Amino acid sequence: MDTACVVSIWKVLPPSLSVALSLPSWYRDRRTLSDAAEHLMGKRPQQLFVLPIFNVLATVCLSEDDEFERHARAFWGPSALHFLPRIAKYIAFILLAVNARSLPFGWHFRVFYPALQLRAQLWLFRLSLIFHSRKQRRAALIKWVENLSPIGANPMDKMIVYKTWAALDDCDYNFHLSNSCYPKTLDSARLQAALSFFPAFLREGGWIALGGTHFNFMREIRILSPYEVRMNIASWDNKWFFLVVRFVTKPTQKSGTAKPAPSPAPISDKPAQATAQTPMDTPFPSLHTPASGTSTPLPRNVPASSPEAAAAMASVAAQLRGATEPDGAVVNCISVNECVFKHGRITVPPALVLAADGLCAEPGYSAAKPPPHWAEVHRLREAGAMRAFLRGGWRDVPEGERWWEQALAGLEQRRAANYALIRGVRDGLDGARGIVG
């Protein structure tokens, strides 16, 4: 399509149509665009303001129908139908291209693409073992799954990053990412985090249920801007584990220098240490911002499940102001996700799932040098007993001999401090039920 055609298309769309240009070469043997525009504007100019796009698309799809064409010619004029279908096709193509991510099954593809990719890799790996014995295939598959596990990683320091951008169909009329698109994006990010943190648990038939999601919006993510979703495990108890998510954007660069992100407090790369006198003020150790000394009490008719609920909520809200990441990225939104591990309908303790995928508290371990508890994990997998163990066999292990608790014992102080803060958010928000209850 030449330049004259593009200009002609844009000239015909606005109500205040100019009639200075003529049709391109493929239409010069008919009426000019200016004549057609004068005809349309002179005939029914008021209807050009309210004509919806689906009428234009209907003209394309049904122009071959004699009855419809007769009515269309009465409305548009006989000459307009010559160029309108071609213009409408271009408009339809542009609309589809702009909203491609929202087309049917677009969300499903984005969410399940990492799982489908991993499934394809597993299928190819199995295909390479077709001429091996059954015992060799089983040992190779166990080794393949174990290589996916983050063996030796600290569950509270390991961060999963999901990269995306604010597409046109994800933004609202204020030209920034719509609030409804944060949880939609988080669906894809959570599955990527699950495959990175717990591949062996998912391979054993486990799944993860979402119990609640809490958002705090601080800064806008502008239209067409790239952003990252950064996820850390903040804490856990005997049932729930809490995933802290940050939506961040990189500072814009002007004149070759990066614009500094506002930060009211220095950033430390070292994990924060919680003590009995000085509780940890952040739900994840890599982000440090000062907490306000003020407190916001809950309404009188809202029950709090713990005396610290209101203070914890106020502390979290104060920390979110002016927060930055260690690399200078600006935190635009923060989310706390409550999740639970399930095997069928049976709840699995988070500490067991973490340790079964090789996560541990002590540094210096890796796949080449696994932590001490990994021998027990490997023994259960080789014996084919891991599923039964996850489904309740762990209860038969005496409390003093539970290797999964021993593997994470070094994180107990940080876990408890983070849990007090994260649980305070949950308790405070759950207490809002008293307002309508």
TrEMBL record:
Q: Which domain of life is it from?
A: Eukaryota
Q: What name does UniProt use for this protein?
A: Uncharacterized protein
